[in-house]
Queue: 3 jobs
Job 1
Amino acid sequence: MSSPSAHGIRRILTGALGAAAAVAVTVGLAAPPASAADPEYVALGDSMASGPLIPNITGNVGCGRSTHNYAHELATRLGAELHDVTCSGAETKHMTASQSLSVAGVSTGTAPPQFDALTADTTLVTLTIGGNDAGLVGIAQDCANLDPTATPCKDRYTEGGVDQVAQRVDAVGPRLAAVLDGIHQRSPKARVLVTGYGLYVKPGGCWPLQPVLPVDADYLQGNVHRLNGVIAAQARAHNAEYVDVETPSAGHDACQSATVKWVEGYVPVNPAAPLHPNQRGEANYARIIADHLG
């Protein structure tokens, strides 16, 4: 029997994601209300922050927002009043523009601009954004390969000596700068923390457990690292604090065992979306952020 193609892998993962999200909505639970005296915390960001397919879902199912994402875990640690508007698929533009949502091709409505959650009384903001602007998940799916003799996808993305992915990553910088300035304008009293993205695959990868060739594993994680550098630089330049979650993730990447990994691989073994943090990862991100807050 021939091995499935990269296209086949992408199709299987996309179908699994939509089906699981549809099931997850039936067991959705709302976060418990906080008291009026609690600090006002707004969580902004994409699927790394929203926690798709981690039970239990809250809000529009199209956002894939979990009651066990890092925002909910952090709010519990801090005793904060949480306004979580993180949403799968969000880009920097969705801070000020509405986002169309769907599950398995079926519309679930729209999410309002995430900045709508910010007020003058907001005292803490966390932000995770930029991965979708650069298209990193789609690139990772495109690089899936079960043929060890195949040409690395890195060759295609760096053809002619131009690194197309690096260009996409660098282009996130000005967009993130505008987002950070917009947060400060709307919530001048808020302490603003910006996270990077985690360690998805160890150096050299672990083919075929995770179906990317060793050179492509390093290329993909290298661009995640590059994006983290862009995020850190913009945080420093725009009165925000960068929280590194990549370094503490060492030994917890998708190549590790089910009880150790913080992120899932191409085929999840814990409840989570492919190539996204699982509940253990979200809980540890919350711990890392809480430690940063002191």
Job 2
Amino acid sequence: MKRLYLLRHAKAGWAMPGIRDFDRPLDEVGHADAEATGMAMAAAGYVPDLTLCSNARRARETLEGIAGNADIGRVLFFDQLYTEDATGYLALIREHGSFGSLLVIGHNPMMEDLATAVAGDGEQEARDALASGFPTSGLAVVRFDDGLDEATTGAGYLEAFVTPAAG
């Protein structure tokens, strides 16, 4: 059994004049939510073998907040997690799926699209929460019977959907 942890970056501030969207930092709420998500991951025993993180500043800062509170395994950074769609995310997951369980820190709408696509079934409470949207610092926990290098749409089971509001 392998787990795919899909985490939307924490809340970022609006872009200031002269700052690219790619370079937007987390705001105060975002920093606190990233730390809380890390604590929730540690408490639940969610430990990825490898983390794939967008190179965007808000994703890297989310990673820092989580890493201060939870084990995140080895980390690789990818510009594709800023530029690709959900299909591109899934291709990257498959490419690194032989490492075991993966944490992916990326952006919406890709996270929501991917979580919805790969979770063919799941806990009703988690499915209802995901159906309400994928907020910043939202974490979808999707279990696969086979390795993530063979992950396909509909093959996963949504175990949990953790949000800052749900704590």
Job 3
Amino acid sequence: MARVLIIDDSPTEIYKLSSMLEKQGHEALTAETGEDGIALAKKELPDVVLMDIVMPGLNGFQATRQLSKSPETAHIPVIIVTTKDQQTDRVWGMRQGAKDFLVKPVTAETLNAAIVKVAQVTQ
């Protein structure tokens, strides 16, 4: 199972995603800002990061770019999980270094499949 860092400014979304992950046997770490998420990723080195886009301060695109460019965290796959459903958002997210792009609300099955695919962990 994977150690998954959730970076999202919504306590409700953090709760939903954490619950889904824990039911699938994953360990959930959480951060409510892009800045805190980057610091926690460098400290904990999770197997995968779930990244919201719309957050105050450092947004998800900026945080994804920083994680994917930093030698310390470049090996950690980022999955963007957002309500933004435009093709331009998807393309821009992938250009920042994301490995997958999911639109909220996500199902537990979709989320788990994406994590298994990008993090190369067993189910």
